[in-house]
Every structure is written in C-alpha cells, then in structure tokens.
Amino acid sequence: MSKQRITAIALLLVLIASFTVLLSIGSEIYREKPPIPTAFVDNQGQTLFSQNDVEQGQLVWRSMGGHQLGSIWGHGSYVAPDWTADWLHHEAQAWLNITAKQRFNTEFAKLDSQQQAGLEQALREDIRKNSVITKANGEIEISLSATRIAAIKQVEQHYLALFGDDPKLSSLREQYAMKEGTVPNLERREQLNAFLFWGAWAAVTERPDADYTYTNNWPFDPQIGNTPTSDNVVWSILSIVTLIAGIGALVWYHAAGKHESLPTPAEQDPLFYNKPTPSQRAVGKYFVTAIGLFLLQILLGGITAHYAVEGQNFYGIPLAEILPYSVTRTWHTQLAVFWIATAWLGTGLYIAPALSGYEPKYQRLGVNVLWVALVIVVLGSMAGEWIGVQQYFDLDMNFLFGHQGYEYIDLGRIWQVLLLAGLLIWLALVTASMRPALKVKNEMRPVIWVLYASCVAIGLFYGAGLFMGKHTNLAIAEYWRWWVVHLWVEGFFETFATSVIALMLVRLGLIRARSANAAVLFATVIFLTGGLIGTLHHLYFTGTPTSVIAWGAIFSALEVVPLALIGFEAVESYRLRAASPWMIRYKWAIMFFVATAFWNLVGAGILGFLINPPIALYFIQGLNTTATHAHAAFMGVYGMLGMGLMLFCLRGLTGQMQWNEKLLKGAFWTMNIGLAAMVFISLLPVGIVQFFAVIDHGYWFARSPEVIHSPLVETLVWMRMPGDVLFSFGGIFMGWFLFDIIKKALAKKKALTVIDDEQVSAKA
C-alpha cells in the first residue's frame, strides 16, 4: 500500500473518530446541562423567577447585543463586566452584609477576621447547595433561602437601574461603554435579571453528587468557594506533556523524511498567458468588496477600541447615541468574518475553472447573483443588528431579523438562513466547474479532492449555527456556536487554504506535484487531528461536564504541534519568491503567505497555547489575553492568507498590467508591523495586568472599572493607537492598490474601444 493511500486512510479515520467524539460529548452536554427550572421559589413556594422569565430574559440579553456587551461564563466582549462574575460578587456582598446586620448588628467589613470567616463559610453553604427538586409531573423547582432572596433583590435593583437610564449610574454605564437606556422597557429588564441570575446560579451551584459547580468552579472567586478543580490542574499538566511529545514526534518525522529538491521553474510564467474566463473576470468584484469591508472593519475597530477609554463618546462626540459599543463591536467582529470569507469564496470561484479548464453554462450569471446575495446579507444583517440593539424590534422579530447575541454569528435567523443558502450556491458553482478536474487521474487528484471536500464542509458546516433555537439552553448554544466558529473558520477554511496554495504553486511549476500531494494530505491529517476535538477547549466552563476538560486540553495541545514547524514553511515560501525572474509578479502574494506562517506560529501557536490549558483559561478567559490571541490569529493568519490568495487571483485577472509594487510593499509592512504593535504594546500587557488582578482579588475584579479604567490600563489602551494607525494605513494602501488596478483596467478598456471604433471607421 502506498504512503499516499495510507495517509488518505488516516485522514478518513481522523474525521470519523473526531466527529464521533464531538457528537458523543455533545450528547453528554445535553444530558448534564445546567437545568432551567420551572421556577425558582422561596421556602413558602412563592415564585421568584419562572422558566418563562429566564427564557425571555435570554432573548432580552440577545437583543441588547448579548456577547457584544460584557460576557456570560467568560464569553463575549471585554469592556463591560462578565455578568456572571459581577452578579455573584454583588450577591455575595449583599448576603454577607444582610447576615452581618442580623447577627452582629453591623456591616460585614467592620467584623473581625474570625467573624468574617464564619459568615463566608455560611455563605458558601447556602449558595453552593444544589436544591433542585424534580416533581412527579416532571416540573423542576429550585428553592432559595430567605437571605439569598433578599440579596438577589438588592442585585436586581442595581441591574434595573444600570440597564435603564438612572442618572445615579450614568458614570458606571459610561465606564462599561453602555448607552443610556440600554434596555428601556422595565419588564424586559426584569426578565433580563432572571437570565443573568440563572447564569450566576449555574456558576456557583454544585452539580449533584459533586464538589464543583456546573461551570467547573468558574469564575475564580475564593470567597464563594470557586477555586480550580483537580481536573483543571491535572489535564493542564498532561496537555503540556502532550505538546512536548507531539513536537518531538513531528521533528523526528520531519528529520527522517525525504526532502525532494525543488523543480527547475519554467522560463516563462505558466499562468501569465492564460486568458481569464467570463466567470473568473466576474470574480474581481468579490475582491473589491472584500477590501471595502476590510476598510470598514478597520474604522469600526478604531471606534470600538476608543470606547474602552471614553465609553459613550468618540473624542467628545456623543457617538454612542447612534452607534453604541455593542453595535460597533458586532459589526467589527462580523465584518472580519465577512471580508475574509468573501476573499476566500472569490478564490474558490476563480481557482475552480483554472483547475478544470472548464466553464459551465451560466457560471458567470451564478457568480454575479451570488455576489448580489452576499451584499444583501451583509448590509441587511448589519441594519437588523442596529435596529435590534436600539430595541425597536419585539423579541421574536429580533430573533428573526435583528441581533442573535452570539459572537461571530450575531446576524438574525433569517440572515443566517440566507447566508447558508449563499454558501450552498457557492458550493454548487464550485462543484459545476470543478467536476472535470475531479475525474482526472493524476498525481494531484488527492489534493483536488481534499480541496473539494473542504469546499463541501465550508458550504455545509455554517448550518451548525441553525441548531440553536430561540430558547436553547446556553450550554448547548455555546456547543453549536463553536462548531461554526472553530470548525468552519479554523478547521475547514484552513484545509481549503492549504490545498489552494499547493495547487497554485504546482501550476506555477515551483513545487513537485508528488511532494505537494503528500504534504497537503499529511498537513490535513495533523491539523484536523487536534483541530476537530480541540474545539472543546472553548467549552471548559460553559456548563459542560468535566470530560470536556480532558478531551479539550489534550487535543487543543495537539493543535499547536504542527505550528511548531511552521517556520520551515515560511522559509520555503520566502525562497520561492526568487525562484525565477518572472516570480517577481507573485512576490507580494508569496510574502503574505510568509506572514501567514509567521502569525500561525506566533498568533495561533504561542498566544493560542497561552490561553488553551484549562488552568490558564480558568484565570484569563475573557480577559485581553483572549483579544491578543484573537487579533494575532484571525487577522494574522486568515486575514494575511486572504490577502495572499486575492493577489494570486488578481495577477491572473490583470495579465500583463504593471502593478504598483510600492503600494503593495507599503500595505504588507504597515499591516504586519501595525498588527504586532497593537498586540504586543497594548493588548497583551493589558491582559497581563488583568491576570495579576484575577489572582490577587478574583475574576470579577479584573473586569471591574477599578482595573479597566485604572491609569495604567488606560495608558496601555492609548498606546495601541500607533499600531492601529499604522495598520489602518496598510488597509488604505491595499485599497489604493485596487483602485489603481481598476483605473488602469478602465483606461485599457477605453483605449481598446477607441481602436475598435477607428478600425470600424476605416473599413467604412
């Protein structure tokens, strides 16, 4: 059996085994999720919160921006508090003060240390107790003590004022980057309280027959008894051992393998004289659209970052009245997905006919229709999100057309369905043009099939987001959300990109087909071995059982293993830029691939592993360490890769046109240096400051205004500006470059028209 066939079988087994584990864990999450009771009741059976209150409160939370305004269970944005940790801290302080006055007739802070320790122990015994009662009719009730209910009512009043427009809390709302009247309707605010309390209840209530909570003792708060579990520590150590073993094995494999010399490049560019098909020419608008969305994302990113120091204003302008933080951050994160996906989808539509040499009937029409559909989804979803956050929709309409509240899949359900339909149209177009290439038996056939399989996965796996319904338990919603964010973006797009790059380089005659084939299959096996089950590292503390910690810790460590040798890929790619004189045409496309390799190691690898082990994430989930990894990995890897793929396709579309290399050089270096500056001068230092705050005072404190708006942190936020400005220039240079191409193309078209007219006149 050939090595190629063995690798293909290994890939199939990895897929089967990984999805078996993922679905099995999903089934376990369904069974062991934190229950939403029929009612939370007092000792006399009077209802405090009903199931309907919690479920409607979840819809209210989603309508105000959900993850884009603070976080729940550590997932969401970074300026406002984590509402779970914030509620628990407020409730604990209220409980302690109430009890201190009852027993000692004074405030808790005035007690001696022994008295305080005794009350804190009583607090833990009260709030950590699991009092779930399942009745004969299947209804679930959870009883709460009188003291706890009194404490809850105090927290309720604070939140009713905070999410409204109480002038006493205006300063706090500004520090949290909340607009005045975030939820103007009183009934909605009361329902929101029910949902936020349920999330806090799950984070402090111990599972049946266990000494840890539904969220595995997250967030860290020793006062309420939330400290790291043994699973957090043990599996973290084992994940590090797994990482070292995996890197050692891969280095051994790499050293023992046969490395073929690169082929002698052709004297002329093999792609230079290929005339683009009508559908390929129609793809050009995808790249223009991608850069337009990229520039808009940069603008919104600057506004969103500024809200961290001036929560309701933009340099004195009361911008939050029109564009509150929850809207600008929604658009900023969503546009990152949209522009990168647009560039990659355009690449797929361009490369498919190039592989097969076949242009299906109506392919150009399909490409144009799909582009219109994508523009409608982008603009429509953004408008719906703004209307939803402004509370103009009712809750049902918001679910359909407004803001879903879940980060990266914020768009309303109708827009989700339309986007999935667009992806299926894209898959149909790619399939139609690739079909002949799939039938040809040659050395590149396995890579072409891997490419096509990744296209199928990209087309279908976005649909995982539709498994979350209107009232889906948050633990289950997070499970399906990360299927989209991790599998769709970080898994199958990665496979798609690896295959496309290999095929491009083979067509250019820069690498041997046999070598590319083996490398792509092996890389796909390695990436997906850790990447699929590694999805679970996002779910350690989202109401999941401890098995998630074990699987997620080990396999997220394996995700990092192939990135340890990514430097070899960077060096090999860099050498290709000078393989032949005609390669100067592809220099900056190659350079963006080199940047992708660099950020894969730094952003996805080093900064990713910083937050991957359970014990690390336990303390720093939802801090700016997460933003550090997100910016370096998402833009550094997927964004730079999207730029490189776009430039490769544009070279084919522009033919002999002379490019403005200075603009590309400026775009490349300002983007990369700017990204590094914002990550290492601002985001990472802020995350480290918060890390110390968590250890010293508890998670709630690291997300509080005392830390977020401390002089040190605000100074570090301002220090982000040079990097942001430099990165913005990179986007402007890229936009200018595209504008220059369009201008030259129009001039050329006009000149050809004049020549044709003169020839017609001469014949007449």
Automatic annotation (TrEMBL):
Q: What is its EC number?
A: 1.7.2.5
- Keywords recorded for this protein, A-Z: Membrane, Oxidoreductase, Transmembrane, Transmembrane helix
Q: Name one GO molecular function term.
A: cytochrome-c oxidase activity
> Where in the numbering of this chain does the Nitric oxide reductase subunit B cytochrome c-like domain appear?
37-219
Q: Which InterPro entries match?
A: Cyt_c_oxase-like_su1_sf, Cyt_C_Oxase_1, NorB_cytochrome_c-like
**Cellular component GO terms, alphabetically?**
membrane
Record field: transmembrane: 233-253, 286-309, 336-358, 370-393, 413-434, 446-468, 480-506, 518-536, 548-568, 588-611, 631-653, 673-695, 725-742
Q: What is this protein called?
A: Nitric-oxide reductase
Record organism:
Shewanella halifaxensis (strain HAW-EB4)
